[in-house]
# Entry
Amino acid sequence: MTQLLRSWVDSANTATTDFPLNNLPYGAFRSTGGDLHAGVAIGDQILNVTALEQAGLLDLPQPNVFAGGTWNDFMALGPDTWASLRAFLTGALAEGSARQADLEPHLVAMAGATLEMPFAVTEFTDFYASRNHSFNIGCLFRDPANALPPNWLHIPIGYNGRASSVVVSGTDVIRPNGQLKGPDMEMPIFAACKRFDLELEMGAIVGTPSNGRVSVQEADDMIFGYVLLNDWSARDIQAWEYVPLGPFQAKATATTISPWIVTKAALEPFRASTPPREKELLPYLAEPGPMLYDIDLEVGLAPDGKAETILSRTNYDVMYYSAAQQLTHHTTSGCPMRVGDLLGSGTISGPEKENRGSLIELSWGGKEPLTLDTGETRTFLEDGDTLTLRGAAKGDGYRIGFGECAGKLLPAPAIS
Ligand SMILES: O=C(O)/C=C/C(=O)CC(=O)CC(=O)O
Ligand SMILES: [Ca+2]
Ligand SMILES: [Mg+2]
# Structure
């Protein structure tokens, strides 16, 4: 296991920071009202990468890669350029680097910056790949005797979502109105969602485009990095609309991502294998090596103005399919993948109740309310609740953190 790499940025040299020199995640930020800049997180600082490029300090194969303040154009330059920027930053930010004087003027305090979307989402696909989550949802929406669909152990199941609804952490989320029909109602009504939920997920970002089918190894090589992802879900809208084509408006309100892209390179020491196969996979889906990651995850809920309760803790390594397998399956049809495509892992639930990644599972369809540390109860989310996902891979004396993936729920628009 690698150890903490020391930086001349002192705040990066602690066991508690999300952003030691080992991490170097990529984001986008504004300092009070200013332009959008690309940046890399180091301790409690952001190194302004757009400014480094403008100052001629970066060796890139083309000009103005970071002029727009996001990472799409950089991703498009390919894995060799990804590796060389990371090598440059690792060396230049290391303790004792001769580059300190060049870089120091381009540091800004993270506390004074607004974090924005680190990349423009090209398309968004969401999967259904945690065995425990899929079993639980099958019990709650369908039949406990046949909870896991017959295709589930053979295909990474997914649906095409909406890139337009992906937002960065800190963006308020408005409770949706929609078409609802309870089992005892004769006609549906149009009303505010009453069962608004979260989904704890990881998002994988495609950095290399494809045209035609790719192998699992090629798919892994195409992934640039990972974010935390909350796929907000309207369970009552979902239950009525999903037959037969799957979720539509129930999952189109918002999907929140964490602000920092943690690169695959930073996660390399934490690779983990998918669990044993219950049915042999078709050869095109076989993994040549470990392609999940050991990342501890947690979900916190804070009612308006009150203290937070941790609702759930789990780990990304419980997933039955890796992002590489999902990406491979996505290309079997010939579907081209593009730079900036985002793949949701699917809700991450572990085996125990405290490992469940959604409220519909934690409250078992609303039948078993949770008691928060404040004393109040929840089945689903209430207006004013702030939901926060956190995640980190834990090394020897350091952590590779993602920053927070948070959103506050605001009331539904009035229906006229
Ligand atoms: O089983 C269903 O009908 C739908 C399940 C979901 O909620 C879909 C989804 O977003 C997948 C996931 O996040 O795991
Ligand atoms: Ca989802
Ligand atoms: Mg969504």
Notes: The chain has two domains: 10-116, 124-410. Residues 126, 128, 133, 137, 141, 199, 201, 231, 233, 242, 247, 251, 346-347 surround LGMQ2O6W (ligand 1) (CB under 6 Å). The radius of gyration is 21 Å. The chain has a mean pLDDT of 97.
